[in-house]
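Q: Joint fold for the lines below.
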Amino acid sequence: MTAENKAFQKVTESTATNPIQGNPYGPNPSDFLSNVANFQLIDSTLREGEQFANSYFSTEKKIEIAKALDDFGVDYIELTSPVASEQSRKDCEAICKLGLKAKILTHIRCHMDDAKVAVETGVDGVDVVIGTSKFLRQYSHGKDMNYIAKSAIEVIEFVKSKGIEIRFSSEDSFRSDLVDLLNIYKTVSKIGVNRIGIADTVGCANPRQVYELVRTLKSVVNCDIECHFHNDTGCAIANAYTALEAGAKLIDVCVLGIGERNGIVPIGGLMARMIVADPDYVKSKYKLPKLRDLENLVADAVEVNIPFNNPITGFCAFTHKAGIHAKAILANPSTYEILDPHDFGMKRYIHFANRLTGWNAIKSRVDQLNLSLTDAEVKIVTTKIKKMGDIRPLNIDDVDSIIKEYHGEINTPTLVPKMTKSDEEPLDLSDEPAAKKVKL
Amino acid sequence: MTAENKAFQKVTESTATNPIQGNPYGPNPSDFLSNVANFQLIDSTLREGEQFANSYFSTEKKIEIAKALDDFGVDYIELTSPVASEQSRKDCEAICKLGLKAKILTHIRCHMDDAKVAVETGVDGVDVVIGTSKFLRQYSHGKDMNYIAKSAIEVIEFVKSKGIEIRFSSEDSFRSDLVDLLNIYKTVSKIGVNRIGIADTVGCANPRQVYELVRTLKSVVNCDIECHFHNDTGCAIANAYTALEAGAKLIDVCVLGIGERNGIVPIGGLMARMIVADPDYVKSKYKLPKLRDLENLVADAVEVNIPFNNPITGFCAFTHKAGIHAKAILANPSTYEILDPHDFGMKRYIHFANRLTGWNAIKSRVDQLNLSLTDAEVKIVTTKIKKMGDIRPLNIDDVDSIIKEYHGEINTPTLVPKMTKSDEEPLDLSDEPAAKKVKL
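A: Joint structure:
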């Protein structure tokens, strides 16, 4: 652990004073249902992620990704349905044979044809899904709720008879009729599924809706609740967190969130969210320093760049720029960081080469350069740097040159240039900017 | 309006059956405080966004961005403090002189030195901020709450005396002591600020915390509430939405969310969230088809790419791939789209050239190619396409070739090759894949 790392003062929801915990009437009893400190991850990069526009995974790449996910510590790995194509079936079998710690699931339609193929692949469990909203019932499969219940029971009992895990999920849950939903979930819960799933298939749900639905379901079923959130309206991570607060147990994630349209909950963003809530649980369970490699592996495979604003691994996620921010970060990183970059094998960076910089950031740079300037002198040189930053974008060399030039000026005001090595080094007459030259 | 556009069946929270609205005890009285259908945007691309690692905006670029924001319809444009640098002050004055519809604000520390400069720039209002968390009080400005209140009163009364708008915001509000917060907000509300601001400066807040704090503040202040959410843990958009539900009125946004670290609420993502909640309000107020140009303008200026998974404008935000999805989208786009791409000047795309494709998507392509195949025949050719898709990534040409080849086979089973133009066109003996050749 580096000195910088040690200096990081952890601030978590459990220690920080916040409005909810400041409630003088004591903790809300409903919080005892929360699974924020006891959640599991179902990674669907090799199922939902295969539905991402750019995805084409060869068998070798699927195996490489599955191993990396297992190494990171995900609890489940979900694979494309074995009936999607012949190679999909073979790949499913191959991944089951790897002997990973993570349990292997495959994801099928609620139909016996699919179930019969799925149970023969060697998976640890089957995820069954069927659309329940009026949209999907009318335009997708055309079946009513009675038919759905009948198929569900048949498929669930068949999968259970094979001794493997079974999850039943509705699709488009947030546009389904609540009574229909509760009916079907109550039915499958009675038969004894391992998990029920709710899915925000179109990405329309908002956090308080999610909380209400999960909380309602908790009183209807006695199995675990899994949640699948699309990110069309940018709420997938928050919805996942709120679902766990309400008592859901498992969250579907993908590396970088890849999936249909703009995807689902990204594993990295969810780690950022969860480590704030329970750092010990998250750090003990998942190998966070492997996150960057995992994301790079998948980004390369599907030929996308890591988004510039990606949580944790975006190029500037730990870059501090404004003078006020830099000053405080130098005094204590907790001031402007809720995440410690070292937990993820990353580093923070103070961006001091710009017109928004402040004298504390420049003083820190002066120290790094091993030069000696008083605070008053640092303030003068900071003004010079900000002035230059008003004229054009600066880089570190620019700032260093301005500092060194000023340092030279005030330390050798009357000295004539030293002529050491003058024979070998003639005066520089190139057109390099004056600011880049260090006076002797 | 195209035929495709007309076919889009809108689904909004107000018409969809959802758990909250299905509550048999009627609407929750607390929803009367919601501003989901009555919110305003404060764009901070030229303030918070200037604190983004890559930002360097020339005067000309600032003016171009300000005009584009104004054209899009933002209510306020917030600019970097005029004391940040001499050019920042001049740019602030220049933008105030543009005569935009949007009100111009500048953002300063809670200090008379800054306030005196700010009110002379010609802005319509001043946004004042000071850190109130124990972290910022200890490591940033080093002042106690009494000092903060005293400075706040002095600055607020001074700005008010100039007849322009004044907002007072705490910084790091979600790690501040609740009683301290309520005290200071009650004080400034009594003096008569236009808005109070709460800021999740480190990106630690979650939706239910946000709801609680905003709802509590609603009973303490009688001015508008503005919210500023950082995105370190991926919850900025959801927090903004939940704040509006609780009764906040204004949200700070940036184009692409650029700002310190990985930024704040992105204007595009928030539009996606809000149009689902109240399409009429959002479409009447903001020129949504200009979103893409606005994002491209800023992305170019700060030298980043639009993230692959960006809401609305990400390259695949309206791409549908899995066979089940494609089938339903072709029948009714509402099945798998909560956003209508046409509202944003975008188009949807059915990705049919892959092994997850289904026969409905291929049938649609057959129709586009103006070929005639029965459903049974389409299913056969779909199997051929999926088989090829198992071997390697496909493009549209591959699929078209397979379809045309099959169409040729079944329509001319006994015909000998026609010799039309055979003199000019000898038999093709190149090594082009067989699948790409169309039999006569």
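Q: Anything notable?
A: Residues 144 and 330 of chain B are 62 Å apart (CA to CA). Chain B touches chain A through 112 residues (CB under 8 Å).
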